Amino acid sequence: MSGHERMIRDRDAARDAFVSLAGWGDARVTFLAGDASFRTYHRLWRGTRSVVLMDAPPEHEDIRPFVRVARHLSGLGYSAPEVLAEDPAHGFLLLEDLGDETYTRRLAAGADEAALYTLAVDLLADLHRRPADMAAPPGLAPPYDDALLLQEARLLTDWFMPAVLGEAPDDAALADYEAQWRAVFPPARAVPDTLVLRDFHVDNLLHVPGRPGLAGCGLLDFQDAVVGPLTYDVVSLLEDARRDMNPDLVATMRARYLSAVPGLDPEAFAASWAVLAAQRHAKVIGIFTRLSRRDGKPLYLDHIPRVWRLFEAALDHPALAGVRAWIDRYIPPERRTRPP
User: Fold this and answer.
1) Which residue ranges form the domains of the chain, and what is each CATH number?
2) Using an 8 Å Cβ cutoff, are 58 and 89 in contact?
């Protein structure tokens, strides 16, 4: 038996032991989903009752942030999955099953788009009206500081540029790239801080039937949450890398959010939106390229032309003139394509 086969066998045994100890050893198991991380999900059935098993290999993932944020969100009255059993050492969680009705599936089935987005925007506004020390769980780390924002923006130069241009930029160009980003982070922070879930978009939102109000919006994939500018999750929702959005709907939802969070200066919010949209799109282009080249998941490349369109639109804001000039110089329009 090879070392890899032995590792798989040992992990299967650890998973079976965890499920049995949690009282679900006799359950019928069906595969539920994988995602862009190393996590996989299975549904365990006993009659008509079901729970979800998260399998997060500890050499790649740490389930403790998910547990901390899930319990905090539930305590605020939101529908994060209840944690039923946990094994941080081996990377297993048994979770409440909130169902399959993701926003993505509901929208594909013809559900009311405006109603779904209204609920998600209202949830963000409700969270963001709370003081930052109440919106986020205690001890959440790291903050969404400039170093982390810059590290993420570097994914564009580290992954996309070598894939499309054949090489990364030289040291002088990289230093200039970083300088241009550092110059625009202050406007991004000219809004209050809050809990930033970081992947707040339709794939990670659920319609939960029978739950009133904001609890009808289920939350998934928040283990990377940080404290940072409140604009970020609104951008993540309304400038979606995975689906085209009606500009009128985006404008309506943006206005709804602004009217629901008192004290926000519209111009400061617009500048913060533009900078964080550009930063997120640069990051996502890099991540989707990495998922293909490193992790063998090429389907994400199909979204890159859309993300470039969103990135270019964000760069139109005057605050981003320096970043735009760098992009125009080193990644001309004809190279802003789907990587091979």
Assistant:
1) 3-96 (3.30.200.20), 103-335 (3.90.1200.10)
2) yes
Rounded CA-CA distance 239/311 in Å is 10
Contact 113, 107 (CB under 8 A): yes
317 alpha carbon, distance to own chain's centre: 24
- Distance from the Cα of residue 274 to its chain's centroid: 18
Compute the CA torsion angle 4, 10, 14, 19 (nearest 10 deg): 80
Report how far residue 112's alpha carbon sits from residue 149's, in angstroms, rounded to the nearest whole number: 34
Closest CA to 300 of 311, 312, 287: 287
- The tokens for 48 are 């008509």
Sign of the four-CA dihedral 284, 288, 289, 290: positive
* Grouped pLDDT means (10 residues each) for the chain, 340 residues: 66 92 93 76 93 93 94 97 96 96 96 98 98 91 92 98 96 98 98 96 95 97 95 98 96 98 96 98 98 93 97 98 98 96
